[in-house]
From TrEMBL:
The keyword Transmembrane applies. It comes from the Bacteria. GO terms for molecular function: transmembrane transporter activity. It is found in: Cell membrane. The chain crosses the membrane at residues 46-66, 102-121, 133-155, 175-196, 208-230, 236-256, 268-286, 292-310. Belongs to the binding-protein-dependent transport system permease family. FecCD subfamily. One of its GO terms (biological process) is siderophore-iron import into cell. This is Ferrichrome ABC transporter permease. One of its GO terms (cellular component) is plasma membrane. The keyword Membrane applies.
C-alpha cells in the first residue's frame, strides 16, 4: 500500500471525524464564528482529532520500536507490560502523595513505564526458549502480574473505580487544555525516525551491532525511553488503547519489510487511519451515544491478533 494512499485515507477520515458527534455540525455552521457549533468545533472536535492522530501514530511507532529491539513481532507496549507499569506508577503516586500534581504523576508514570519495559527486556535476555509466540505470552503474564498488583492496591485504598474510569481508553473527554501532553510524543517520533537505522541494526542482535561499531546498550536504552515517553503520554491523556502498537507494525511489515527508516512513516499513518476508523465506528454504532475507542480497538485488534497467533510461524525470526 502506497504512503500517499494512506495519507488520503487519513485526510478523508479526519474530515468525517470532525463532523460526527452527539451534536450535529455542518461546514455551513462554521461560517458563523460566534455560533455554539463553532465553539464546540474548536474546543472539542479539533482537539479530539489531534489527540487521535498523535495517539495513533505514537502507539504504533512505540510498538514498532519494541518489536525491532526484542526481535519479536508479537511484542508491543500492550504485551510487554509497559502500559500496566504506567498504570501502577499512577496509582503509586495517588497512594503515597495525596497532593501530587499532574506533572508529578507524569514523572511517576514515565519512571514506572520505563522500569517495567526495561525489566521485561531483561527477562527476554534470560529466556532460552525464545519462540515467536512464547515470548509475548510471557509478556502478557508479566503485564497481568503488574495489573493484579495495581488492582489489589487500588481496591485496598478504595481508588479502583477512580483509576478505572480515568484510564479507560476514550476520546470522549478530550477538549482543549486536556490533550496537550500528547505533543510530547512528537519529538519522540522524530527521534525514532532519526535512530531508525540504528534500531534496525540493534534488532539484529548485540554481537552483530557491536561488530558494526554500534553501542548496543545506548541504542536499546534510547528505544526504551522513547517507548516509555509515548506510552505514558497516551495513558495519561486518553487511557489504555490495546493492540494498536501490536497489529499496525505487523500489517506494515507484511508489505514493506522490516527496514525501520521505510516503515516508520507508513506505520504512523496506518496507526492514525486504524484509530480513526475505530473511533468513528464507536461514535456511529449507537449514535448519539458513544462506545469507548478501547472497546472497538480491542474487538477488531483481538481478531487480528488471534489470526496472527494462528499464523505465528509465518512471523518467526
Amino acid at each position: 500500500m502506497k504512503l500517499w494512499m494512506l495519507g488520503i485515507a487519513a485526510i478523508v477520515l479526519s474530515f468525517i471525524s470532525l463532523f460526527i458527534g452527539a451534536i450535529d455540525i455542518t461546514p455551513k455552521d462554521l461560517l458563523n464564528w460566534e455560533s455554539d457549533e463553532t465553539h464546540i468545533f474548536l474546543i472539542s472536535r479539533i482537539p479530539r482529532l489531534l489527540a487521535i492522530i498523535l495517539a495513533g501514530a505514537g502507539m504504533s511507532i512505540a510498538g514498532l520500536i519494541m518489536q525491532s529491539l526484542s526481535r519479536n513481532k508479537f511484542v508491543s507496549p500492550t504485551t510487554a507490560g509497559t502500559l500496566d507499569a504506567a498504570k501502577l506508577g499512577i496509582l503509586i503516586s495517588m497512594l503515597f502523595f495525596t497532593n501530587v500534581t499532574y506533572t508529578q504523576q507524569v514523572i511517576f508514570s514515565f519512571a514506572f513505564a520505563l522500569a517495567g519495559t526495561f525489566l521485561f527486556m531483561q527477562i527476554l535476555d534470560r529466556i532460552k526458549f525464545k519462540d515467536v509466540i512464547f515470548v509475548p505470552l510471557i509478556g502478557i503474564m508479566y503485564g497481568n502480574i503488574l495489573s493484579s498488583i495495581t488492582t489489589f492496591l487500588g481496591y485496598e485504598a478504595d481508588l479502583l473505580q477512580n483509576l478505572s474510569s480515568w484510564l479507560m481508553g476514550s476520546f470522549t473527554l478530550i477538549i482543549a487544555g486536556r490533550y496537550e501532553l500528547l505533543y510530547v510524543s512528537i519529538p519522540a517520533i522524530i527521534l525514532a525516525y532519526l535512530y531508525a537505522n540504528k534500531f534496525t541494526v540493534a534488532g539484529m542482535g548485540e554481537d552483530f551491532a557491536r561488530n558494526l561499531g554500534l553501542s548496543y546498550k545506548l541504542v536499546l536504552n534510547i528505544g526504551l525511553v522513547l517507548v516509555a515517553v509515548i506510552s505514558t503520554t497516551v495513558v495519561l491523556t486518553v487511557g489504555v488503547i490495546p493492540f494498536l502498537g501490536l497489529i499496525v507494525p505487523n500489517i506494515v511489515s507484511l508489505y514493506l519489510g522490516d527496514n525501520l527508516r521505510k516503515t516508520i512513516p507508513h506505520t504512523a499513518v496506518l496507526g492514525i487511519v486504524f484509530l480513526l476508523i475505530c473511533d468513528i465506528l464507536g461514535r456511529i454504532i449507537i449514535h448519539p451515544y458513544e462506545i469507548p475507542v478501547n472497546v472497538t480497538v480491542a474487538v477488531i485488534g483481538s481478531a487480528i491478533f488471534l489470526t496472527m497467533l494462528l499464523r505465528g510461524r509465518a512471523y518467526a525470526k
